[in-house]
Backbone:
């Protein structure tokens, strides 16, 4: 890797920082205001369709696959995709593609082909409810509580970044901007429930693309096209390694190429990715809102196609920002020389600085609306999933049973308010991380990695017992937290996001080992109680849609998944 001399003047300039403000004009504010009118309008229209808790929590299981497919991917187009991945692009370059082509698409296809028939066919209303039916109340309570905590923390990430946008746009203090952003999201989720969230997510998907595509094209033009970007990235800290996705040493934190590839493929591509996409109710909830098993299976598969292309309008702008915007270029040089440099500039601001640098008024308004859409989609997805799990899996199951449907509908709306208030407080935890992906991957290693181990073992091994379900979850989570604490206290040190990969891998392995050991000394559930929950005990007719054979080729889940998988393999080879 090339060595770069960084003058003390650069470090001092970055340390002092500057107040980031976007030069928005009346036309930009008008575009943003028009977007908010549409968002709240959708919430009001969706409210007319809410007559039961099933309508509020799962849209009455009536939505078409193309709507839920776009909502599926838009729900993930929050802080992770927009600010977190542009930050990764600015810091690491091409290796950040792994979060999409290794760390997302394969797991999304597996969810659609293999796991959705069990979720949808069993008629569960949430992923924790599936856990209760498979493993009993012990594993269910652990999963429901950990999921609820995770959603409040991740909603705080989206809320923090949403407040940041209002802060740089209007100059409001960050705490005021965070509260204002929370009120906007709270309004349409409380009004229209999941339907409002999903239809807004479809709108938000198109707004996000309309914002980021021009930003990417104009940014590429400003750096001299693709060849100009390659030249500038090669000459920047990190050098030409940023133009090769493999072996991704800077991203994984491993100097050894083999260990780096192993960490990315196993830690990110298998444990973190499958743990997130196949067991995260935020995503699964969108598929459960469809009208049939085939539509539910197509939901994540349809979402995989835009997911393949999104890095081109998220990661590439981050790379452009790091070489085009003076503040970002200076910050990258300074932090390369001294990782502990104190600066008001962070990688999380890469996209904002690029927008300020290249977008004219008018397009700036579209860009701002796109960012607001992204963060609102992300937070709304977290909050709508939280209110379902809190109301159905915690309140109805353990606190107040056998009340009227309208009672639980009211609880769901109150849970929405509670989650939003809690997210206001957790939002400022995210502010302590210069790269928001570090924080998110840490959370995923805590909660999703052990959950995936329990799920995959319990779904394909009928002998696994209820006691093994909850003890494996607890042990896996404890190991992930322990590894994080050891890294933070300096017992060992991994740069990049390697500690999350290691923690996730360890959590997965420990969960499996503990689950198998406990299963050997405890009693399993009767086979009759595992129908619809375990692969070997579920008849084929319960796992398939009776009309599946009559569907045209473009609606067949397995064929669509195969095409998407081939595209991902080609892209991984092309960027190696």
Residues:
């Amino acid at each position: 890797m090339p060595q770069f001399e960084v003058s003390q003047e650069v470090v001092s300039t970055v340390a002092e920082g500057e107040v980031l403000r976007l030069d928005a004009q009346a036309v930009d504010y008008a575009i943003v205001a028009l977007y908010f009118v549409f968002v709240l309008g959708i919430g009001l229209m969706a409210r007319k369709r809410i007559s039961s808790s099933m309508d509020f929590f799962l849209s009455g299981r009536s939505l078409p696959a193309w709507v839920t497919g776009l909502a599926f991917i838009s729900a993930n187009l929050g802080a992770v995709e927009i600010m977190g991945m542009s930050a990764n692009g600015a810091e690491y370059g091409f290796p950040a593609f792994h979060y999409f082509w290794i760390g997302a698409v394969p797991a999304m296809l597996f969810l659609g082909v293999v796991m959705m028939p069990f979720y949808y066919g069993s008629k569960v209303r949430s992923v924790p409810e599936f856990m209760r039916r498979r493993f009993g109340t012990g594993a269910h309570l652990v999963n429901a509580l950990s999921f609820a905590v995770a959603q409040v923390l991740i909603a705080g990430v989206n809320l923090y970044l949403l407040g940041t946008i209002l802060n740089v746009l209007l100059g409001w203090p960050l705490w005021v901007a965070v509260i204002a952003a929370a009120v906007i999201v709270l309004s349409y989720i409380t009004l229209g429930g999941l339907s409002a969230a999903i239809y807004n997510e479809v709108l938000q998907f198109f707004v996000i693309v309309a914002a980021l595509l021009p930003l990417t094209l104009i940014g590429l033009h400003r750096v001299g096209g693709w060849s100009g970007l390659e030249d500038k990235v090669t000459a920047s800290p990190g050098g030409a390694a940023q133009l090769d996705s493999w072996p991704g040493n800077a991203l994984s934190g491993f100097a050894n190429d083999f260990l780096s590839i192993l960490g990315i493929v196993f830690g990110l591509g298998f444990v973190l990715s499958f743990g997130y996409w196949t067991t995260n109710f935020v995503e699964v909830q969108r598929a459960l809102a469809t009208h049939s098993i085939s539509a539910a299976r197509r939901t994540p598969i349809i979402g995989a196609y835009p997911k393949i292309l999104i890095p081109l309008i998220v990661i590439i702008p981050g790379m452009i920002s790091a070489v085009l915007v003076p503040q970002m270029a200076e910050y990258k040089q300074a932090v390369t020389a001294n990782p502990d440099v104190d600066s008001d500039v962070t990688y999380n601001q890469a996209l904002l600085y690029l927008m300020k640098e290249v977008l004219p008024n008018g397009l700036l308004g579209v860009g701002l609306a796109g960012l607001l859409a992204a963060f609102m989609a992300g937070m709304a997805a977290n909050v709508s999933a939280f209110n379902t799990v809190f109301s159905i899996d915690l309140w109805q199951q353990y606190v107040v049973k056998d009340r009227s449907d309208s009672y639980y509908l009211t609880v769901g709306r109150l849970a929405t308010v509670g989650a939003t208030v809690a997210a206001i407080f957790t939002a400022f935890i995210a502010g302590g991380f210069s790269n928001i992906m570090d924080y998110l991957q840490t959370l995923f290693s805590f909660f999703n990695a052990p959950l995936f181990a329990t799920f995959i073992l319990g779904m394909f091994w009928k002998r696994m017992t209820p006691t093994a379900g909850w003890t494996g979850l607890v042990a896996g989570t404890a190991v992930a937290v322990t590894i994080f604490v050891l890294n933070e206290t300096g017992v060992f040190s991994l740069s990049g996001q390697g500690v999350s990969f290691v923690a996730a891998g360890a959590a997965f392995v420990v969960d499996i080992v503990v689950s198998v050991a406990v299963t050997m000394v405890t009693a399993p559930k009767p086979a009759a109680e595992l129908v619809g929950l375990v692969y070997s005990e579920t008849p084929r007719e319960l796992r398939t849609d009776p009309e599946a054979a009559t569907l045209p080729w473009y609606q067949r889940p397995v064929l669509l998944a195969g095409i998407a998988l081939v595209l991902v393999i080609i892209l991984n080879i092309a960027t190696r």
